[in-house]
Automatic annotation (TrEMBL):
UniProt name for this protein: G-protein coupled receptors family 1 profile domain-containing protein
Keywords: Membrane, Transmembrane, Transmembrane helix
One cellular component (GO) term of this entry: membrane
Entry annotated with the keyword Heme: no
Length: 321
């Protein structure tokens, strides 16, 4: 029952991430809007994490934690791949914060532009996986020094693993929170000088309001992502530190906190659908196109109606951009 639920959830989340990625790609904004591009990479990274998590769930519910076999080596690899995806996800979220900070500056800062570029995101993804896979390779080479059963809950709560994996995660969550506070300060500081709006034309005032509204929407989206990220990652880190100080471990709590890591990819697609207007319009368009055609109408009329609805929705997506 538990295996079927988690697998079904992973498959559903993978499908939701694929839909969100396709919807963002169809908007045609990936080349123009850097925030969309960062969200697109974050979606792909979360989808990749779902594959690894589903695989390790099958292994842990099929084999015994404390028996030797090839499944222990598979657990060893997956228990490094999943944290690598989490670390790269945190790097992408941090880049989204930096991008929003850069958007509040009149003259774009070159360092922030470089850190939020596609090359920097790719290097961050590559570094996080090399960082974890290098430890995985060392574990394979030095089998005598590693924990005997990697599938067991005490493997990823040992002090060496916590210092290697959870410490960078906690640091990135701290950096994200700090950059978010800077972002809030920048936004409120930018909105203070509104007394000079009387000197602007009506068109300029409307453009300023649209820009402020767009920043506000992106800030709400980013707030949701940051809160979900902290709630899904910090409890496991805190309990791991508690285990090493207290010396006792509860397998059920460890599994529950590991499953809590699913909260991040679980909520992210909902955030993208309800907070990013273009993705929401793609969902509405898909739902309308899947409606059955009334019996009394010819096929040509139905196709025309569907085409018209798509045009209307597409138009709405671009009016208040």
């Amino acid at each position: 029952m538990k295996l079927g639920f988690i697998l079904g959830l992973c498959i559903t989340l993978f499908g939701a991430h694929v839909f969100a990625a396709v919807a963002l790609a169809k908007t045609g904004q990936l080349a123009k809007n850097k925030f969309f591009r960062l969200a697109f990479f974050l979606i792909l990274n979360d989808a990749f994490m779902m594959v690894g998590y589903a695989w390790i769930t099958i292994i842990m519910n099929t084999y015994d934690f404390y028996t030797e076999g090839p499944h222990q080596d598979q657990c060893l690899v997956l228990l490094h791949l999943v944290p690598a995806s989490i670390l790269s996800s945190l790097w992408m979220t941090f880049s989204m914060c930096l991008q929003r900070i850069n958007a509040t500056v009149v003259v774009s800062k070159r360092i922030l532009t470089i850190l939020t570029s596609t090359i920097a995101i790719g290097l961050g993804f590559l570094f996080s996986h090399v960082y974890f896979l290098s430890r995985c390779v060392l574990e394979f080479i030095r089998k005598v020094q590693r924990v005997q059963f990697p599938c067991a809950p005490n493997y990823n709560t040992q002090k060496r693993f916590l210092l290697f994996a959870d410490t960078p995660n906690a640091l990135f969550v701290t950096f994200i929170a700090c950059s978010y506070l800077v972002l809030i300060f920048r936004i409120f500081h930018k909105r203070k000088p509104m007394n000079g709006t009387k000197r602007l034309s009506e068109l300029q005032i409307q453009q300023e309001r649209k820009a402020a509204l767009r920043i506000c929407y992106n800030m709400i989206t980013l707030s949701c992502i940051i809160i979900v990220t902290a709630v899904s990652i910090l409890p496991r880190t805190s309990y791991g530190l508690y285990i090493n100080f207290n010396g006792t471990i509860d397998d059920d709590i460890v599994r529950a906190l590991n499953n809590l890591l699913l909260l991040n990819p679980l909520v992210d697609p909902i955030i993208y659908i309800f907070r990013i207007k273009e993705v929401r319009c793609q969902l509405i368009c898909r739902c309308r196109s899947n409606k059955t055609t009334p019996l009394g109408l010819p096929m040509q009329s139905a196709n025309a109606t569907t085409s018209t609805s798509r045009t209307i929705v597409s138009g709405l997506a671009t009016i208040t951009k």
